[in-house]
Design goal:
alpha+beta; two-stranded antiparallel ribbon; 4 strands; about 120 residues; 2 domains; elongated
Length: about 120
């Protein structure tokens, strides 16, 4: 009984859609673009966030920050502090420091904004 109703509904749907081919084309194109965009987004997300880091023992990587005690926001450690840690701390196998910041410069007679990253060994 329900199967016959389903067949009648499908026949009605195909008859209705055959009367409006532009609607069908736009709908299928929209669905195709949506599925493609979703696939691309999750492919990028997987490669950036879900794959393990390309380091030996990535679960042992840590990020160190310092605080002056007046705020709860951690601050990047300074390069001299990192050098002191590198020389004196025995709990780290190795230590690298990076700092990123934005600069504005004149390039080819126009202002350009760039993100610069400084990194230690």
């Amino acid at each position: 009984m329900w199967f016959n109703d389903l067949l009648l509904d499908l026949k009605f749907a195909f008859r209705s859609l055959s009367k409006a081919p532009a609607f069908v084309i736009v709908t299928l194109a929209t669905l195709g673009l949506g599925v493609g965009a979703n696939t691309a987004t999750f492919s990028v997300l997987k490669s950036i966030a879900l794959n393990p880091l390309p380091y030996r023992d990535p679960d042992r990587l840590v990020m160190i920050a310092e605080s002056d005690g007046r705020t709860t926001n951690p601050q990047d450690i300074a390069f001299p502090t990192a050098e002191d840690l590198r020389q004196s701390a025995s709990s780290f196998e190795s230590l690298s420091v990076f700092k990123d910041f934005d600069i504005t410069a004149i390039v080819a007679a126009s202002w350009r904004h760039r993100n610069v990253i400084l990194a230690s060994e």
